[in-house]
Amino acid sequence: MTDLPERNVTRVDDRNLAWREAGSGPALVLVHGIGGHAGSWRNQLTEFSSSHRVIAWDAPGYGGSDPLGIDAPRASDYSSVLAAFLRTLGVSSAHLVGHSLGSIMIASLCKAHGFVPEGLTFLQPVTGTGLLPDEKREAIRKTRIDDMTRLGAREFAIQRGRTILSPKATPSAVTDALEVMMVVPQQGYLAAWDMMCAEDLFSLIEPRHRTMVVCGSDDPVSPPETGQAIADRIPNSAFHVLKDVGHYAALEAPDRLNAILRDFITSKT
Questions:
Q1: Under a CB-based contact definition with an 8 Å cutoff, are residues 58 and 19 in contact?
Q2: Would you state the pLDDT for residue 218?
């Protein structure tokens, strides 16, 4: 792994929030998924620091950030904190990249808080289970909670990590991804899981925003069909499938992801 910028911590609305930052220029804001933290973007922090102010936060309950402290949180709870965080950092305009559950957070930031992005990248987005019947949704929610409670955060991450990465992922990529997932706090993960089970990404999408959707061909969590369905809702959106990539493109295929992301950021169409 490349070296990480040091962790910064600031107070936002009586809550400690942590982030990693590199470079200067137009803002590029990176929002990790349910099994991540700011460090999962280390390759992007390095790659884009020569041209952008790259900001990767630790979501509430992750890394160095205090938990939300809310029962049954919704996407708007996370995006409210994200909006306040960006105001604190003086960021009023940015390209936003959300991985997995992070896609729901950045969509909510735009819809609920009026943030107008330079561009949105939904990276291996999950759609949430909010539209499922209550009984089915609750069964899914409870199964994940039971698994996490039974195994503990570290063993849960190891077992789940091996199922969501591509069988063709390099040993170093697997190691990098597992190292990230194994340190995710149980409390933060389960709060974010509650949020995902309650939400529906499609209801948060605003077609007016310039958008790119990126999926991995071997991703069992956000398969290409999901990404295509999302892209189809957004006129003139870009859609890419990374071959032989599972659910952690930022670590499994950083060079290919960075190339696609740079093309999207620098293009005006």
A1: yes
A2: 98
